[in-house]
Write a structure and sequence with these properties.
This protein is an alpha+beta fold. It has three helices and five strands; from the N terminus they run H-E-E-E-H-E-E-H.
Length: 160
C-alpha cells in the first residue's frame, strides 16, 4: 500500500544484501548483519555528522507500511546496537535516528531504512542538507572499521 517504487527498480540495498557493490556502497561498509537486518556506513553525509549508518531489513520492503512486525523488530534491535556502537566509538555527544516514507516524507530509496546519526553539540543536523558529493570508500572506511571492531569484540544481538 502507498507504494512508489517504479517498475523494474534496481534496489541498491538488495544489491549489497546479496553481496554486491555499487559506486555508493561496498561490502566494506557493512558493519552488522543478522538474519533479518543489516547495517552499513552510508555514503550520503551531512556536514557535521560524518559516518552515519543505515539499517535495513534483509527482506525487500518498500516502507513502514509494508514492513512485517518481525522485520521491524529486527531492524530496531540493530538500530539500537548501532546507536550504542556509534556512541562508544565516534566520540559524539548523542544519537538521532530518522526514517522516511513516500516522496512527500523525503524517501528516495525504495527499501525501508533507518538513519542513525552521530550527534554533536550545536551540529545543526536538522537545519543542514547532505553534502553534494558522496563520501568515498576511503572516507567511509575508518567509520566502518571502528564499528566492525566494536561488534567483533562483543555479542550484540542474539540470533532469532
Amino acid at each position: 500500500m502507498f507504494n512508489h517504487e517504479p517498475a523494474g527498480y534496481d534496489c541498491p540495498f538488495c544489491l549489497v544484501l546479496a553481496g554486491g557493490e555499487d559506486n555508493l556502497t561496498s561490502q566494506q561498509d557493512v558493519v552488522l548483519r543478522t538474519d533479518r537486518a543489516m547495517a552499513f556506513v552510508a555514503s550520503r553525509w551531512w556536514p557535521n555528522n560524518l559516518g552515519h549508518v543505515l539499517v535495513v531489513p534483509t527482506g525487500h520492503h518498500e516502507n513502514l507500511y509494508d514492513l512485517p512486525s518481525v522485520d521491524g523488530h529486527a531492524v530496531q534491535d540493530a538500530v539500537r546496537a548501532v546507536a550504542i556502537a556509534i556512541r562508544h566509538t565516534y566520540g559524539c555527544d548523542g544519537i538521532s535516528t530518522r526514517q522516511h516514507n513516500e516522496p512527500a516524507g523525503y524517501q528516495d530509496a525504495w527499501h525501508y531504512h533507518v538513519h542513525v546519526f552521530p550527534r554533536y553539540k550545536d551540529d545543526n543536523l536538522y537545519n543542514t542538507t547532505h553534502l553534494a558529493q558522496p563520501a568515498t570508500r576511503e572516507e567511509r572506511e575508518p567509520y566502518a572499521q571502528r564499528l566492525r571492531s566494536y561488534f567483533a569484540d562483543r555479542a550484540v544481538i542474539p540470533e532469532s
